[in-house]
Structures are given as structure tokens and as C-alpha cells.
């Protein structure tokens, strides 16, 4: 593939789907928010992938599929991959995704990755959709995903005040799961805290799956009325 080729995110998915059936728009956006890929943007703000971007994405997906590596490990292996060095062998794949938060984003990086304007970011911060890391002026790396998806919703006509419902839902779910593991999380020994993290990961996956299924049911009903 020529390096100058500019592909849309949908074209990239079609190109890679045979090898990676679970690839999706949200997954690619998440990898971008984690700083593993950095496609160019068109004048209208759409992602444009060249041959190097596709090769990089393929490498990342292979590491996840074949070695079950967490993103932090894959990110470190990318430096070797960029130099054309062999990166065979699986590293410790047990690192928790709750630990693997990635590098925090300063304001400029968050704006660039999300496509938000200063005014839009200020509004999302005001309504609690995006929050700086406590005691700092930087944002968690996941804020890149939140910002990008919020931008998409706002482009469709929603306002930051409308999106606050999402934050309130997340806060309730977080409180619910937090109560579930509170005794383990408060324990002083590492084994209990590790167990708490494992429970949170499993339960958060279940909550996410339920949320998506219930939302699909409700949206289908709206279309049928």
C-alpha cells in the first residue's frame, strides 16, 4: 500500500476485518486515545490513514490477538517495531487494564486527539464529562475517547448539558461496583487489592454489556413506534 494512500476509518476496518473480525470504529478510536496510533485529519476533521498507519494498526492488533498483551507493553514494543527490529515473544500479559491507563494528556494533546474546540472542552469540563486528574491540570488518557465521542454527539446536535446524563449514569454504576468490592479495596494486603481489581474488571464488563444490550432494545422500540 503506498504511503500516500489516505483511507477513511471505515475503509481501514474493511481492509483488516478478515484478519481481525472484532475490529470496530470504537476500538480504533480507543487505540488513538491511548497514543498508539495518530492518523492525520482532513480539513473537515475526519481521520485519514496512510500505509504506515495501517501497518502500525495491524501490528498492534496482532500483539493483542496472538500474545494477549496489554496496551502498555504493546506501546513499548512499538519503538522496536518502528526500527524494524524483531519483537517476538510475549511479555507479562496479566497487567490489569485498570492499571494500564497510559500517559496523561495535557490540554493541547486532548484538543488535538478529540477534535474539540477550546469552548467545547470547557463546556464538557463544566458539566463533568471530562475531569482533570485530581490535583493536576492534565487529563487521564481515556479523556481522549470521551472527548472524541462527545464531539461526534455534539456535531449531531446534542449539547454538553445533555451529555451530563451519561456522566450521572457512569457515576451510579461506579458507586454500585465500588460498594461491591469495598471490603477488599480497603484491605491492606496486596492479594485482596488484586482480587478487588479482578472483580471490578469482570463486573464492569458485565455492566457494559448489559448497558449496550438494554440501549439497543430501547432504540429498536423507538424505531418501531
Description of the molecule:
With 225 residues, the chain is mainly alpha-helical. It folds into two domains: 9-82, Orthogonal Bundle (Multidrug-efflux Transporter Regulator, Chain: A, Domain 2), CATH 1.10.1660.10; 107-224, Multidrug-efflux Transporter Regulator, Chain: A, Domain 2, CATH 1.10.1660. The chain contains nine helices and two strands. It has a two-stranded antiparallel sheet. Mean pLDDT is 85; it is low at 86-95.
Q: Summed up, what is this model?
A:
This protein is mainly α. It is about 60% helix and about 0% strand.
How much of the residues is beta strand, in percent?
A: under 5%
Question: Which strand order do you get reading across the main beta sheet?
Answer: 1-2
User: How much is the radius of gyration in Å?
Assistant: 19 Å
Uncertain spans: 86-95
Counting DSSP E segments of at least 2 residues, the number of strands comes to 2
Structural class: mainly alpha
Largest sheet: 2 strands, antiparallel
